[in-house]
Amino acid sequence: MRLTVNGTPVEVDAPPMKRLLDVLREDCSLTGTKEGCGEGECGACTVLVDGVAVASCLVPFAQAAGASITTIEGLGGNHPLQVAFMREVGAQCGICTPGMIMAALPLGPKPSLAKVKDALAGNLCRCTGYEAIYRAIRSAWGEQAPT
Amino acid sequence: MRTALSAFHLHRPRSLTDALRVMREEPATVPLAGCTDVFVALNAGTPPGTHYLDLTPLGGLARIAEKDGVLSIGALATYTAIIKSRLVRQQLPMLVAAAREVGGAQIQNRGTLGGNVANASPAGDTLPVLAVAEAVVVLRSAADGERRVPFTSFYTGYRASVRHPDELIVALEFPPVEGKQWFRKVGTRAAQAISKVMMAGVRSSRPRLALGSVAATVVRLPRAEAALAGGASIDEAVRILSGEITPIDDIRSTAEYRLAVAGNLLRAYWRDTAVTVLKSD
Q: Read out DSSP for B140-189?
């Protein structure tokens, strides 16, 4: 089956009911997407499918056929959200961070706190606490990423 | 993942006719939409079947439209689509309120109204709304074509319904709802928590009430409704309500807590909807 991952067309041979999460990690070697609960509660496995945030542990590979998938690797490392999470210390153990950033990505620049909380309601962090995460997302677009 | 997936068969239909043919030929087929319930079962090692039918290629089943005053929401309409729909916001604000409390954005983006009905959990977030809105379930099969079942007689017991094994839920239809609409979910957390108790209500000369997570199926409360319609005090209505439901102790809550919260929700519904009714009278 064909799909586009982080802008690159790929062809993957995997069972149609395989989780998109496992296709990304095992078949595409993109291990930035994490498995937390495996039941759609924690948001650690969040990726974008055609720009929409989904829990990749609940998506059969067949439903991603032909779609454009964006994972944390697609942000390149110097994305404003990634820089802001570093600056604001929006991560401690880091397991939830890729999912947090992917859930925040569709918000675009300078979202209100209410919008941030809404977008991240499905993402659990068990160590940092949410304040630094919210601060990172709200301030991300105010500063240029280092070049 | 505690399930070996390579043994599973997944059919991706080219058309609704093709999908209904698969349902007729292999009645144990499990239809898939947003997979937010089925994949939880797969991940836990309790697959609901070996044959699956992916409905998502049937984009026509996601349509939200109004005809002759009846609002039709396709089975594949996601919670996000419901939240964004101007038609639904205007006609069924209580359904928008319920959709907003289904999981987080990731779940709202994938989960569907048809899936919530088909999954038949007594804790399904939209189900009390469907009960008080007096929705109609539109079913289709290759053998019998289309038939319509009132939502309030759709479930026959715990996770059991009148849907035939070869039928697909294709849409939910809603007649116009007169009166002020109300919805409240009580759980451990606003998002990502399965409810302990939820209530939907419509306040009019014929008050309508439904509760989720307090019985084997979502339930309407005909005796409490009749009491309120007849001018009973709210204390009396709460007393009657407590004889109408059969909550249980489970991993999420206790029967005692659910009973107390159900009564509190009835009081909140009555208080929150009072002002508008007085004005419109």
A: EETTTEEEEEEGGGTEEETTEES--TT-EEEEEEE----SEEEEEEE-SS
* Domain over A77-142 is classified CATH 1.10.150.120: yes
Residues of chain A in contact with residue B5, where contact means CB-CB under 8 angstroms, are 15, 17-19
Q: Does B41 touch chain A (CB under 8 A)?
A: no
Q: B106–A39: do the CB atoms touch at under 8 Å?
A: no
Chain B residues whose beta carbon lies within 8 Å of the beta carbon of residue A61 = none
Give the Cα-Cα-Cα angle B268, B269, B271 (nearest 5 degrees). Answer: 65
| Structural domains of chain B in order of their starting residue, each with its CATH number | 5-54 (3.30.43.10), 61-174 (3.30.465.10), 180-280 (3.30.390.50)
Give yes or no for a contact between B91 and B179, defined as CB atoms under 8 angstroms apart. Answer: no
pLDDT reported for residue A147: 43
For chain B, residues with pLDDT lower than 70 are 190-193, 275-281
Where are the domain boundaries for CATH 1.10.150.120 in chain A? 77-142
pLDDT tens per residue, range B212-245: 988 899 999 999 999 999 999 999 999 999 999 9
Tell me the pTM. Answer: 0.94
The bridge status of strand B168-174 relative to strand B180-186 is unpaired
CATH assignment of A2-74, given 2.60.120.200, 3.40.50.360, 3.40.50.2300, 3.10.20.30? 3.10.20.30
- Yes or no, beta carbons of B10 and A60 under 8 Å apart: yes
**Would an 8 Å CB–CB cutoff place B6 in contact with chain A?**
yes
At residue A61, does pLDDT exceed 50? yes
B192/A contact by beta carbon, under 8 A: yes
Supply the ipTM of this predicted assembly: 0.94
Q: Is the pLDDT of residue A145 over 60?
A: no
Alpha carbon of residue B46 to chain centroid: 23
Contact B84, B100 (CB under 8 A): no
Query: Is B105 in Cβ contact with A121 (below 8 Å)?
Result: yes
